[in-house]
Design a protein that fits this description.
Rossmann fold, single chain, 2 domains, seven-stranded parallel beta sheet
Amino acid sequence: MSVLFASGDVGGARALLPVIECCRAHGMSTLVLDHGRLSTEASLAWERISSEELSTEEQTLKRFKEKGVRALVFATSVKDTLALTLARRAKGFGLPVFHLLDNWTAYRERMETDGLPTFSPDHYIVMDGIAHREAVESGIHPSTLRIAGHPALSTLLREYHRWERKSKKGMLKRYAPTRKRRLIAFVSEPVKHDQGVDPESPAFRGYTERSVLQILCEALQPFSERVKMAVLCHPREERDGLLTCWNENRGLLKGGLLGLDKGREGVFLSDAIAGMASVLLYEAWLLGKPVLSLQPGVRQKALRNLEEREGVTFVDSYAGVCASVAQWALDLLDGKKRGIRPEMALHEKAPERVYELIREHLREGEGRK
């Protein structure tokens, strides 16, 4: 008997991976959908099932029975609807379905990306109280919601300390700021691709990654002798286009695109983080780094979760935007240190909480038979 895990995007995959590891460590049999980012990042030793084997509802039911699938745990994607499709089928087969949220956005919309009526999983697992409240406000039924922390952040602090010990000598010599300049990382996202460039697109955020990078570069020009920039490209983003935007707007700023395997390493490396709504900004905040969420004209309430984090500079208006960024930069240059946020403790136990929820539900199901 197995629990099937499915996702498409990188965010969902990285939220599921620690849960799979935890389940396996407890002796639970797991099965991974060989599809999307989860396919490339999952261990080759883990048992998989291909998407081709599940192309129709009839084939899915047959393979689920053959593989002994007892539950489905999935994370959604902006464009890739396969995991949601399988979730609908699994629930139709009478199997328990768990949805794992990987970001503080689009709580209900995630359940509608396939164009069908809103899907309701048996358990909608969220990261914290803010996500719980906003999910309820967006129409998610409270009875399905569970707070577990964010599994992808469970190892954040350990990774940071390990990185400090192992990577300082090599990477800091190459990238780290000298006494003259502090390093600011700009975390890009494929906003233009995912939500469009103007209000004609229903999902338009009110800005794009290009417009935000342009504003940030303009606002930081007076500090070009005291800061430098590291631009972090999202895994789904077109790198050459982002590089062109940087070169067109950098002005006197030093820096460039940072070639790292994981955006988290850019967070570790940098003195401060600027961006829009990426979870990397939240990671930087947890680690006590100065964070700028630059979202002028933001149109969606779900994108504002960083506004509630104490110490984050949240900019939502074009009026006075350069002055707001400049003040943030001045605060950064003052060098005031912040400690690790207490919220870190919630996330460190997240994989275990999700495992316990799955185990509990399966036991209850066995008891009803």
